[in-house]
Amino acid sequence: MRRAALSIMLNITEGSDRKSDVEFVRFLRISFTSLEETVACLYIALDQQYVSEERFAFVYDASNTLARKINALINSIK
After folding, report:
1. I need a labelling partner for 47 at 20 to 30 A (CA). Which of 22, 60, 69, 77 fits?
2. H/E/C letters for each residue in the chain?
3. CA pair distance 45, 31, nearest whole angstrom
4. Contacts of 77 (CB under 8 A, 6+ apart)
C-alpha cells in the first residue's frame, strides 16, 4: 500500500518534468492507476482489520478528492 501511494506522487512528479503535455497526461493517468491500487489495498487492510472503519472512511474520502483533482488536471491540460 505504501509503494502504491508513493507511486502516485512520484508519477506526478516525473510527468511534470517532461517537456510534453502528452507525456504529462500519460504520467497523470499512471498516477491515477496507482491511486486505484492504493484504494484496493485499503479495502484489503479493512478486511484484514489493519485499519478501523473510521480510518478507512477518511483515507477513502481523501482518495476520492485526489482522484477528482488528478482528473481535473488531466482535463485542463487536454
Report:
1. 69
2. CHHHHHHHHHHHHHHHCCCCHHHHHHHHHHHHHHHHHHHHHHHHHHHCCCCCHHHHHHHHHHHHHHHHHHHHHHHHHC
3. 21
4. 21, 24, 25, 28
Domain that holds residue 48: 2-77
Quick: pLDDT tens for 16-53: 998 899 999 999 999 999 999 999 999 999 999 999 99
Q: Report the CATH number that the domain containing residue 65 is assigned in CATH.
A: 1.20.1440.60
Q: Which residues contact 68 (CB under 8 A, 6 or more apart)?
A: none
CA distance 27 to 61: 23
Please state the pTM of the whole predicted model: 0.91
% of the chain beyond a pLDDT of 70: 100
Domain count across the chain: 1
